[in-house]
Design goal:
The protein is an alpha/beta fold. It has 13 helices and 17 strands. Helix 4 packs parallel to helix 5 and helix 11 crosses helix 12. The longest helix has 18 residues.
Amino acid sequence: MSENYLILKGDICYTPSPEKMVCMEDGYLVCENGICKYVTKELPGKLLDFPISDYSGKLIMPGLIDLHVHAPQYSFRGLGMDMELLEWLNCRTFPEERNYQDETYAKRAYEIFAEDLRRGPNTRACVFGTLHVAGTLILMDELEKSGICAFVGKVNMDRNSPDFLREQSADESLANTKEWLRQVKKKEYHSVKPMLTPRFIPSCTDALMEGLKQIQAEWRLPVQSHLSENQGEISWVKELSPQSAFYGDAYDRFGLFGGDVPTVMAHCVWSEEEEQKRMKERGIYIAHCPQSNENLASGIAPVRAYLEQGMHVGLGSDVAGGAHMSIFRAMADAVQMSKIRWRLVDQSQKPLTVPEVFYLGTKGGGSFFGKVGSFESGYELDAVIIDDSIYRHPQKLSVEERAERLIYLHDGSTVLHKFVAGKQLF
């Protein structure tokens, strides 16, 4: 019998589907070689001699997945929230990202970001860096040290941004990207992988997008960007790419919109029927970022419609558009925003439920990384052990009720232990 069993005991909660939340009080999660085998109420006799990590009374949940976060923006969370997207980019985001050309500044800022990410409930993330090669490598170094699994992108932008934060040509941007990838290959990261990251259509010329597709084909890299976040942005894309039928088509023209290219598109607030159809056909992953959409007055994404169509949907913090990195906060915001959409926009689309948003923040987004985000057989062990006893109450609550309350009350301080890809971080 394998000696590589890991057995966790506690109050287990996970969602194998959007409609079903599995909760088990005083259950056992049995894993072998970092892979989940099963959840059981009674441990088989053949396993009784193996060590058991006893977290009785604590919640055992899958690690949370952040499909969209900007690491260099972590430093100014909670600032500029009275602006809309494009003004906010120019007044807050671009001036701060400029600082990451200074490697000393980048290292200090990314140390803070990576350490805070490590201590919270998120176990995996799709992360934007900046356009700076050295700074993005520093970000990857810090994430590798943290033990978090992540896709990280050096941002591409060669137009419509300030002189101090713009690559001077498509050729320069592509050369920088190739150099970054060569350096990544030399470093032989284990937990961190590269991801192509054209910031969004307004910041990338056609020549740059064509070149990124060639790099993608050579390196077989996934892609992340933004889509239909803000109405002003969408109008701008129509001006810049009049030959495109819709915003997503502007990516698709260059082969950077799903299909054989695993792709995360953040927001998708204003995606209309034709765009949604293309997204489904191409297998696009939608990173729903409700707090950012609220803070920047972008709108409310039709997440219920995406789920009903069987599309890939996960959650994103979108720091610093979102002020909180914990995906528990994104779950609560997703429910609340869906209620406002149902009440004020479209009463045919009922609000999201707790099991649905828990699924989005675990298995829904986790599937971008493979078999991640659940305790079903064959899934990699990503887990957080959470002590929710600090939220005092006089009544007896079920595991499901405790999980629901945690979504609304969690402040990031109650993660006792964390497992990522089968390894315990702390």
